[in-house]
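Hey, I was hoping to borrow your eyes for a little while. A protein chain has come my way and I'm curious about its shape. Take your time with it, there's no hurry, and the full record follows here:
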Amino acid sequence: MDNKKFGNIFKGDKVIWMVFFFLCLISIVEVFSASSELTYKGGSYVAPIIKHIGLLGLGVFLALVTLNIKCKYFKIATPILLFISFVTLIWVDFAGHSTNDAQRWLSIFGLQFQPSEIAKGTLVLATAQVLSAMQTERGADRHAMPYILVVCAFIIPFIMVENLSTAALLCSVIFFMMIIGRVPAQQLGKLIGSVVLVIVLVFSMVMIFGHDNEENSPEGQLTEQVDGKKPVKTKNGGMLHRFDTWKSRIDKFSDHEEIPPEKVDLDKDAQTAHANIAIASSNVIGKGPGNSVERDFLSQAFSDFIYAIIIEELGIEGAAFVAMLYIILLFRTGRIASRCENNFPAFLAMGLALLLVTQALFNMCVAVGLVPVTGQPLPLISKGGTSTIINCIYLGAILSVSRSAKKKPELQKSAIGPDNAATEDKETNV
């Protein structure tokens, strides 16, 4: 009886739940290990991890609440969330707190949150609604893309000003959703061409007007530091103030000159250097949980570069296991979407899964040096406030879709047997 009640609480797809709890467990272990800097500054050994566990607990609770919400109510919430996202994204540009020369945080009643985290899920929700409403037998109607682009125009530019990596991540997810939604290939081709031109234009402007003057101190390397101040003035002002940071990161990434270990400036490029040291010192099998050395030197060991700490402590096997969890999440969600009778829940579930997995891929690539530093945390593992709670809500929405997804007819018949299937058909015809 108790097991039945327990199962009734954790409704939805059991595989998704298993992935969810494995990610939370890894998060607790690795954040506890990587929070030595916070422990030293705060003077409390357990306070940072207790706060993190509390946020995860709140996230699990909100996931349970979300999975009990029917998909039709997500549609009703779309215009409200779009309005909130638009207002808060404008608000953060004027009254936001500074994060590495970028205004990304708002504080309401003492609680800090990133409007971009809410805007990401809102845009996925709106895109899923447009694609589902304009589906035909041959795929999405040709008018679907213009509607999606109009919605994106009210969200992405405001994110891009202060957080280019999040904007790029969101654009990638929306593009994949349009592919899944069978938007005409001709329109997708034109969109790709336009995006390439924009990328070339922005890249050129960054390299021309940007100044490689990023702070050499370790504090200047933080990507998630909240100091409650306005951005530090650089050579560029106004909307161009982020060009300096982008140019610095591009120059560092594109500089393939081999530097002897004894000449590496750990103060100038602390994040990347110590992340590489953490990976190289793992010795494949890892040092074991809690035995990381580079956590004391990586400024964002518990957030942006937690995957490097995972490799150092758990080895290649542990890193591969974490990556496999996200892959399982994506493919399991795809299976759930294929069983949906309606288009909207299928598009919504796939969009949210793509959002989580793509962000995880960004973070992993940064940790191993495949892409420049982006400041994207590892979903459900990195220490965070808004991102942790919002990601749990995303999983709750996927679980909500899994509850309404029906089994395929062939699976149903194989499960109940031929005799019972015949009986069921008779009962259905009555």
Remarks:
- The radius of gyration is 23 Å.
- DSSP finds 16 helices and five strands in the chain.
- Residues 2-429 form one domain.
- The first strand starts at residue 97 and ends at 98.
